[in-house]
Design a protein that fits this description.
The complex is a heterodimer. By secondary structure, chain A is mainly beta. Helices cover about 0% and strands about 55% of the residues of chain A. In chain A, a hairpin with a 7-residue loop joins strand 9 (about 85-95) and strand 10. Classes of the chains: A mainly beta, B mainly beta.
Chain lengths: ~110, ~110
């Protein structure tokens, strides 16, 4: 059974640019969550999608957005990149509320 | 406001010893408490989880102890092995909301 797949694994962008990250959940999982991981702040919740609808949103600026497609695949977009956006972005999928989350290996974003 | 506080930040244990990591939470509405293990270059992997109606859960060498009145829960790793060296995160969530993670504990098991 394939796990959660995130692409690309590594990304280097220039300040001011925008970036799109992709996440393919485990087959059958309809919930996809995104987290930002940094050494200083740890794992912070960005947002969660379930059946193409954003169900929860963390405390991040509007530059961070996401969407989910009918096949449950999800994308996350960050516009007007800042140096502080450099982080590991993790996607996690689950069957739904109350179920365990399975994380992907993440996308390492470096903003220069 | 940090809703889940994890300690210690780092831990060194000898092979065969017991590793203990503690977490405290504030929100009494939390009803799901998982522990995740993360190796360098990988995403966190679910290790074991507990719900507040149970005081202890054991899976192999890993045990969660849960104290509802103290709002604390802990992970015990028995017979710790070098392969257990990783970063461990506790987390908590309330039905329908996102996981809130602790800051993590870096465990090193010396051989």
């Amino acid at each position: 059974k394939a796990g959660v797949t995130q692409t690309p694994r590594y990304l280097i962008k220039t300040r001011g640019q925008q970036v799109t990250l992709s996440c393919s959940p485990i087959s059958g999982h309809r919930s996809v969550s995104w987290y930002q991981q940094t050494p200083g702040q740890g794992l912070q919740f960005l947002f969660e999608y379930f059946s193409e609808t954003q169900r929860n949103k963390g405390n991040f600026p509007g530059r961070f957005s996401g969407r989910q497609f009918s096949n449950s695949r999800s994308e996350m977009n960050v516009s007007t990149l800042e140096l502080g956006d450099s982080a590991l972005y993790l996607c996690a999928s689950s069957l739904g509320q109350g179920s365990g989350y399975t994380f992907g290996s993440g996308t390492r974003l470096t903003v220069v | 406001q940090q809703q889940v506080k994890q300690s210690p930040q780092s831990l060194i244990v000898q092979k065969g010893g017991i590793s203990i990591i503690n977490c405290a939470y504030e929100n009494t509405a939390f009803d799901y408490f998982p522990w995740y293990q993360q190796f360098p270059g990988k995403g966190p992997a679910l290790l074991i989880a507990i719900r507040p109606d149970v005081s202890e859960k054991k899976e192999g060498r890993f045990t969660i102890s849960f104290n509802k009145s103290a709002k604390q829960f802990s992970l015990h790793i028995m017979d710790s092995q070098p392969g257990d060296s990783a970063t461990y995160f506790c987390a908590a969530s309330q039905a329908g909301t996102a996981l809130i993670f602790g800051k993590g504990t870096t465990l090193s098991v010396s051989s």
